[in-house]
Write a sequence for this structure.
């Protein structure tokens, strides 16, 4: 199939994305939310005309100069700031209401200490690492009877490359958005990454499983490259259609869902698109490349 024959072109495109992602992360990193750093989040809604963002920020500066004010919908703001006491919260609400000049209601309030934030960060990193290792072990076990021409552990290695590709790209996009648009990452973002890993490995295993079956049956006289190409062709429509239906639902959620799920939906859109690409255009062709390296050594 044309995917396998033109694999170097797809490798090149992915390498460019990875390099750009690495540059973004090295320059700007990620902007952690209060889930990881600790702090306070307050969401308010104005029942009359919403005041200007600059005016609200200037009134909060006396309490926390680093406070972040971001629009929420058309009638409210989301404020992120240092951890505050109950007395300071009252002062914040007065500041947000512009000295009671505007009618305002509190929609959400959350306060997380720095210790809990650090613990959430550790658990998030552990979850991602644990999931990746579990996936690799699972693939190695499932394909343990496949030894020729590519060993089972190499299927797991290939899956790791594809999975790394799939989570680096959304992380880098949020690095750019964090720098230019103030997007923060929180535990919901980590949840999105775990969903992306699961979705991506599902797509990858579907193609790998077809390769395994074709190697067992009807591959006599065919090269490994031909078998992989045929396997990709047999699963291509299924992978694309499954991803498109999922992406359609996520796009609707992004535009019409609530503020709380918007960033979650965006991370999934980017990750699932990257995962579909890697499963079809990177993972399976990599098996061919590894097999060719094995024959040369």
């Amino acid at each position: 199939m044309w995917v396998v024959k033109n694999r170097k072109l797809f490798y090149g495109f992915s390498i460019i994305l990875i390099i750009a992602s690495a540059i973004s992360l090295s320059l700007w990193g990620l902007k952690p939310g209060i889930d990881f750093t600790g702090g306070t989040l307050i969401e308010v809604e104005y029942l009359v005309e919403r005041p200007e963002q600059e005016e609200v920020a200037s009134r909060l500066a006396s309490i926390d100069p680093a406070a972040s004010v971001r629009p929420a919908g058309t009638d409210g703001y989301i404020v992120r700031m240092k951890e505050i006491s109950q007395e300071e919260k009252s002062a914040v609400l007065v500041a947000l209401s512009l000295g009671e000049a505007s009618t305002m209601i509190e929609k959400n309030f959350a306060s997380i200490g720095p210790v809990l934030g650090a613990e959430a960060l550790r658990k998030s990193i552990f979850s991602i690492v644990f999931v990746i290792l579990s996936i690799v072990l699972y693939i190695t076990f499932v394909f343990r009877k496949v030894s020729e021409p590519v060993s089972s552990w190499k299927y797991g290695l290939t899956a790791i490359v594809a999975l790394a590709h799939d989570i680096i790209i959304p992380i880098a996009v949020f690095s750019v958005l964090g720098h230019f648009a103030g997007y923060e990452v929180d535990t919901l973002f980590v949840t999105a990454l775990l969903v992306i890993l699961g979705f991506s490995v599902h797509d990858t295993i579907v193609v790998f499983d077809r390769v395994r079956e074709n190697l067992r049956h009807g591959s006599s006289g065919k090269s490994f490259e031909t078998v992989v190409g045929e396997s990709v062709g047999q699963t291509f429509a299924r992978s694309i259609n499954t991803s498109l239906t999922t992406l359609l639902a996520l796009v609707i959620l992004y535009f019409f869902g609530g503020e709380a799920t918007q960033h979650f939906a965006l991370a999934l859109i980017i990750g699932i698109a990257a995962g579909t690409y890697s499963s079809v255009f990177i993972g399976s062709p990599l098996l061919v490349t590894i097999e060719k390296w094995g024959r040369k050594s």
